[in-house]
Automatic annotation (TrEMBL), chain A:
This is 3-methyl-2-oxobutanoate dehydrogenase (2-methylpropanoyl-transferring). Its cofactor is thiamine diphosphate. It is an enzyme of class 1 (oxidoreductase). GO terms for molecular function: branched-chain 2-oxo acid dehydrogenase activity; magnesium ion binding. The keyword Oxidoreductase applies. Keywords: Oxidoreductase.
Length: 326, 429
């Protein structure tokens, strides 16, 4: 039976298990990933089954985790490292940006960097400071990195398989508030390309583009809009670098309107890049400017007001209304 | 639709777009305090004898010579060190002459590179002048299957690993950001961000241990790098995982304008003890001592005893780089004092004292040195600029639609300058 109903967290776990089983060069490393199985239990049971040499509890030092992963990759390993929370990645930012991203180019193509960096990201779980951020644009701006984020358990399973097989560094943003959402995962399916977007709901009046945790919000917004007689299409981008603009362009050419939704601050966010590119590609098709819904230009707020900061159904529909009013 | 004419165009600037070469402005410098005063202000009293073994921790570094492993005096006399003599017992007159040759040719190459920068052929050069013994001594201690992670100044180590010295100049000329396959000589790319490579070395060594291989890894870094968090993390990771890595610190006394006193209150080699592995300080201008100590450290690593730190106590005789002006922050007296400890002169005195080298050897080496200089000059001047389209090469191993799109647009833009071209301009769909 290859179809199982799995939570997103369990789907990542199963995917890591599969990779550890099939490729002896795969190692999992990070803080508390071993005996504890990670603070979200994503690596639960892996050290027990694959040993401390394959599933490595590291010192509490993010730069060290990524820096040694680079060294392991140079030695022929395929490290999958966990950064415990989004807001803790910055000690490793230097290694990621100055070393990991550039190594292949600096070596004139002779060295490959098959390193996956898993980062649970985003808000909505009532966490304390530094545990709810969405820093994907800070990485998407860097050439040499690939940035992906699954929105559901099935994609989480398959995108992790594909990320580990990629010979480039992949930052794998896991939507932590969706960790417990369950969906059917067919472990024998043939997945689409890692960086391909998917139309997850068809519509004719407007396209909502999102990734990771916001896909669910957009699908719910589309359902609510349908009750008002509006037909919204939802595109799950899945990859922020590169972005599958062809799929998005085809959607916008049909619907003629686009609203981009992400948790990250709108200012200099991935929505800005998408808006610019789609405006250039679809200029004569658009009936309204591309609008964006996302976080504010503020520190991530205390948990008691995060629901105001995070795009929810109403804020998405408000932008839908603004777009349709043009 | 296109936004610009498809007929051939001339660049608006009137000249082909080209990055200006050379002439990097020097980093701002500031005068340091009196080094001796800073040290003695703490009322420090250096411990006699080998402090690491005695367990004493000096507060400052007033008498660094007390801690040095030295096998050759500055006058070229062989000093007995029962704990390290065995590590150089195999040296023959031939191998001793080889070490001398390595240092002379490395210095010659380095001098040529400095001249080439002055002539505008290189944008920048980081000279290793004065550090030849530290680099040749440690570099010649390595086995072929050991792996080296250098900074950007390890020209002597590169020489020992068999890298064509001209390959080192590509990044300084501005034609590449690396220029060699790290795996063909087990010599990683030069790393400019200070201390980053110590973590790569540690991770690589963790992999060596996982593989059950009997080799070792050497991470080179400087006194300034010891202040970097990455170096501290490399010490931690290597100790925790017992990784077979040697941390070879060339303490050349200056991190651009900042003296070692701005980096540490204790002798650097003593840092190792806090992480749970041994550290030793060696006379970095003594090629025999550097060879012996590095061999011992590699043996330690290969035998499964984990990391070890070597602090090679030496001196950066030149500027930090060709953009630097050391007269702003250090005295001529200091430089002259170190010139008297010159690593090449020291070995020459020993060779002559022992009768291991004659005039014919030195004359032949001078001739070889001239030939190398000519090779370096000719090859660098003939080094072509890269094809602009190579900007898009190797950004990703598995490709990226983003790079593909930009490559295509830029190629079309370039083609639009060709006479009679009928190519779409940039921005065309």
């Amino acid at each position: 039976m290859s179809v199982q109903k799995l939570s997103l967290a369990k789907a990542v776990n199963e995917s890591l298990r599969k990779a550890l089983e099939t490729d002896p060069k795969v190692v999992v490393m990070g803080e508390d990933v071993g005996k504890l199985g990670g603070v979200f239990r994503v690596t639960d049971g892996l050290q027990k089954d694959f040993g401390e040499e394959r599933v490595i509890d590291t010192p509490l030092a993010e730069s060290g985790i990524v820096g040694t992963a680079i060294g392991l990759a140079l030695r022929g390993y395929r490290p999958v490292v966990e950064i415990q929370f989004d807001g803790f990645v910055f000690p490793a930012y230097d290694q990621i940006v100055t070393q990991l991203a550039k190594m292949h180019a600096r070596s004139l193509g002779t060295v490959k960097m098959p390193v996956v960096i898993r980062i649970p990201y985003g808000g909505g779980i009532g966490a304390v400071e530094h545990h709810s951020e969405s820093p994907e644009a800070l990485f998407a701006h860097v050439a040499g990195l690939k940035i992906v984020s699954p929105s559901n358990a099935s994609d989480a399973y398959w995108m992790m398989q594909q990320a580990i097989q990629t010979d480039d560094p992949v930052i794998f943003f896991e939507p932590k508030r969706r960790y417990w959402d369950r969906a059917d995962v067919d472990t024998e399916a043939i997945p689409g390309p890692l960086h391909g977007a998917k139309v997850v709901r068809e519509g004719t009046d407007l396209t909502l583009a999102a990734y990771g945790p916001m896909v669910k919000v957009c699908v719910e917004a589309a359902a609510a809009a349908a009750e008002e007689g509006k037909s919204l299409e939802v595109v799950d981008l899945r990859s922020m670098s590169p972005i599958d603009f062809d799929t998005l362009q085809a959607s916008v050419e049909r619907t003629r309107r686009l609203v981009v939704v992400h948790e990250a601050p709108v200012f200099y966010g991935s929505g800005a890049e998408i808006a610019a590119r789609i405006t250039e590609r679809c200029f004569y098709h658009l009936e309204a400017p591309v609008l964006r819904v996302g976080g504010f230009h503020s520190p991530y707020p205390p948990a008691r007001v995060e629901d105001e900061y995070l795009p929810g159904l109403d804020r998405v529909l408000d932008s839908v209304d603004r777009s349709l009013a043009y | 639709m296109t936004v610009e004419s498809t007929t051939a165009r001339k660049p608006r600037s009137g000249e082909p777009a080209k990055t200006a070469k050379g002439g990097q402005q020097g980093k701002s410098t500031r005068a340091s305090g009196q080094r001796k005063a800073a040290a003695s202000a703490k009322g420090a009293k250096a411990t006699k004898g080998r402090a690491a073994k005695a367990g004493a921790v000096a507060v400052a570094d007033e008498h660094p010579e007390d801690d040095l492993v030295q096998l050759l005096s500055p006058e070229g006399e062989r000093i007995a060190r029962p704990d390290y003599d065995d590590y150089v017992a195999d040296l023959t007159p031939d191998t001793l002459r080889g070490l001398y040759r390595d240092m002379v040719l490395t210095r010659r190459f380095d001098g040529e590179a400095t001249s080439l920068q002055r002539q505008g052929e290189l944008g920048l050069w980081a000279s290793l002048l004065g550090q030849e013994a530290a680099q040749i001594g440690s570099g010649r201690a390595l086995d072929d299957d050991d792996y080296v992670f250098p900074t950007y100044r390890e020209h002597g180590v590169a020489w020992c690993r068999g890298i064509d010295p001209v390959n080192l100049l590509g990044m300084f000329r501005g034609v590449n950001n690396g220029g060699w396959d790290p795996n063909s000589n087990n010599f990683h790319l030069y790393t400019i961000v200070i201390g980053s490579q110590t973590l790569h070395a540690t991770g690589y060594a963790m992999g060596v241990a996982k593989d059950g291989a009997g080799s070792a890894v050497v991470a080179y870094f400087g006194d300034g790098a010891t202040s970097q968090g990455d170096v501290a993390e490399a010490f931690t990771f290597s100790a925790v995982y017992n990784a077979p890595v040697v941390f070879f610190c060339q303490n050349n006394q200056w991190a651009i304008s900042e003296p070692t006193e701005r980096q540490t209150r204790v002798p650097l080699y003593q840092r190792a003890r806090g992480y749970g592995f041994p550290g030793v300080r060696v006379d970095g201008n003594d090629v025999l001592a550097c060879l012996a100590v590095t061999r011992a450290a590699l043996e330690h690593a290969r035998s499964g005893e984990g990391p070890m730190m070597v602090e090679a106590f030496t001196y950066r005789m030149g500027a930090h780089t060709t953009s630097d002006d050391p007269t702003k922050y250090r005295s001529d007296d200091e430089r002259e004092a170190w010139a008297a400890k010159d690593p090449i002169l020291r070995l020459r005195r020993y060779l002559e004292r022992e009768g291991h080298a004659d005039d014919a050897f030195f004359a032949a080496l001078e001739q070889e040195s001239e030939t190398l200089g000519q090779h370096v000059r000719d090859t660098v001047r003939a080094m072509p600029d890269p094809d602009p389209m190579a900007i898009f090469d190797n950004v990703y191993a598995d490709g990226s639609s983003q790079v593909d799109e930009e490559r295509k647009a830029f190629a079309a833009y370039q083609a639009s300058f060709d006479d009679g071209a009928d190519a779409p301009a940039q921005g065309g769909e």
